[in-house]
Amino acid sequence: MWKYVFLSPLALALASPYSYRTNPIQCPVIFDGRVPQNFTPASFNLASTSPYSPQYVKGENLTWSEIILLPNTTTSRFDTLLVHRPLEVTINDASLFRSGSGLQLGFRRAGLLLRDDKNAAGADAADQGVVTFHWSVRQDVSRSMNLSHEYMNVWHEKADYSGNQFTFVGGVVLPVDGGSGLDTPEEKNVWKIQNHKNEFVFRTPIRNDVWQNFGVQLDYANSTIRVYYSAGNGPLEDVTGALPNDNSGGGQLQLGMAKKPTETETVVWDGYQEPMPQGEGQIYGGVFVEDSSNGCVSL
Ligand SMILES: *[C@@H]1O[C@H](CO)[C@@H](O)[C@H](O)[C@H]1NC(C)=O
Ligand SMILES: *[C@@H]1O[C@H](CO)[C@@H](O)[C@H](O)[C@H]1NC(C)=O
Ligand SMILES: *[C@@H]1O[C@H](CO)[C@@H](O)[C@H](O)[C@H]1NC(C)=O
Ligand SMILES: *[C@@H]1O[C@H](CO)[C@@H](O)[C@H](O)[C@H]1NC(C)=O
After folding, report:
1. Has domain 3-15+27-291 been given CATH number 3.40.630.30?
2. Signal sequence span per UniProt (predicted)?
């Protein structure tokens, strides 16, 4: 009869060759954005509980408890089963920002900032030495992206907002952001990582069936960028080697969803956005920033 015993997800995980009991994080953690298992969406409203800023970056009139979902999907590679859980950042027609008296109607955005990630050049340990930024994503098919649009989902933005050291984008990237703007399947259904010049240094298909794990390593002394990637629970692989990159300018890691308009001149003020009655979401897990100064990287 043992063959017919139903194995709980926990038993399956413990039985798998990549056991979750081994913590794959091997290096000193600078910022830990992993979500404790006992969190509720309201935990993100308070600086006392959330690893993220309760204030930024969300549409006016919205609270994080209205934006964050805690989906019951499997645990990602760099989260620990029964200790951490995934979070989902959502956007909808109300994900709007104001500048002066005007609503910025071009884009829709909700973005998390790590609470202790200071926005000044060299202000914290993630802006010096060698640092690896980690995140995993998974798709919520009931709130999927419309990949005819550009989605900027993770980036490290310079303290003076003049650019990003790297950017993680999906969908049809606008020409103003370094993309082709071509609404073809080859362009749409692909994750891309861009360097500080918005040149694409890595591409991989967006998958609906598994977690996808990314690491971006910035070497501030040698001025390089290196991308790590794996699907499912596989160990990360170096998929680019060290490439030249201008990592100066400090700043902060941004993580969430920023949906750009189509048919736009300014991105911020004009362009087309179809209504999103169900909203759209992006599931994140295993968000952390580690010190790779001693050649250490968690795979
Ligand atoms: C936020 O609330 C104010 C006051 O009710 C309202 O005027 C404004 O339009 C709202 N903003 C959005 C984006 O809905
Ligand atoms: C996850 O499951 C719990 C318990 O069944 C439920 O309350 C919660 O709404 C679920 N989360 C999502 C995002 O569906
Ligand atoms: C997806 O976006 C494109 C470009 O804005 C739009 O034409 C299309 O109607 C959208 N699709 C859905 C299902 O909303
Ligand atoms: C940075 O450059 C130095 C000197 O060329 C080299 O020894 C070191 O291995 C480089 N660091 C990395 C992480 O590649």
Report:
1. no
2. 1-15
